[in-house]
Amino acid sequence: MSWIDNPDKSWREYGELDPYFGVLTEERFRKANLTTEALEGFFASGEAHVTAISAMLHDQVAPSLQMSEALDFGCGVGRIVIPFASRFAKVTGIDISESYRVEALKNCRDRGIDNVQFLETLSPLLEAGARFDLVHSSIVFNHIPWVRGKGIIIQMFELLRPGGAMAVQVMISCGETTVRRAGRWIRRNFLPANWLVNIVRGRSAFEPLMQGNPYPLEELLPLLKAAGAGTFYIKLDTTDAGEVFAMLFCTKASA
Predict the structure, then answer these.
(1) Structural domain for 231, as ranges
(2) Among candidate residues 182, 23, 170, 36, the one with its CA nearest the CA of residue 104
């Protein structure tokens, strides 16, 4: 048994145990608290997000963006895929958790949505030479270490067709003191410490750890530029906990 946290394993566990809370960490979205009203609020937040990024894409980055195919990386239960499906002819959701993909497909079918597909990884799309008008990811890469996540972001960019746009959110600051940062490192690298923190917080001891991984924009932007990205636009948001997120928009040069 490994004592080091595996974020892929943690995400799969959230998909099995508490899928909606795993996406939006508010107590009302825990399985035990999930009411019809809470579910409506959950999916309304996805619609609001897509409306906001659509406006930013149109106003700041790609006013003539085609609306044929979109991709959502880390799609969870379909919070973003569902509003994308009313705007694009075809939508692909990517999630490493089979439980999340099954729930996302159910949520789409319940709404009569049939222009979606769900895959475990980007690999089949890359191998098939698939291309998208928009590739998107939100509240996902903060759970993936930078050393791995940067490669995934570049792969997402490769999947854009010329003239397409990327909208990807990354955390750029955890807003933590040195002591809190050390505590997070210990919890990631010695899971019993995370179990103890869970107990102190009144949670199940084995509730999966949600990693918080910052991404250095001063390294990510040159990587994207080297891959052919342009027309950058960045929107910053700060959480109540002091975390700073950047919603990064960019385009792929037309052929």
Answers:
(1) 7-252
(2) 23
What's the chain's average pLDDT?
93
pLDDT of residue 215: 97
Q: Which two tokens stand for residue 167?
A: 């909208």
Total-model pTM = 0.93
**List of residues 6+ apart from 112 with CB closer than 8 A:** none
Residue at 1 is within a domain: no
| Euclidean distance between CA atoms 79 and 94, whole angstroms | 12
The string of DSSP letters for 86-112 reads TTSSEEEEE-S-HHHHHHHHHHHHHTT
pLDDT of residue 220: 98
pLDDT, average across residues 213-230 = 96
Judged against a pLDDT cut of 90, whether residue 210 lies above it is answered with no
CATH of residue 63: 3.40.50.150
Counting the structural domains of the chain, the total is 1
Cα(253)–Cα(255) distance, integer angstroms: 6
Per-residue pLDDT reduced to its tens digit, 56-67? 999 999 999 999
Task: Indicate the residue type of 207.
Answer: E
Q: How many residues does the chain have?
A: 255
- Write out the E strands in the chain: 69-73, 90-94, 116-119, 132-137, 160-173, 229-238, 244-252
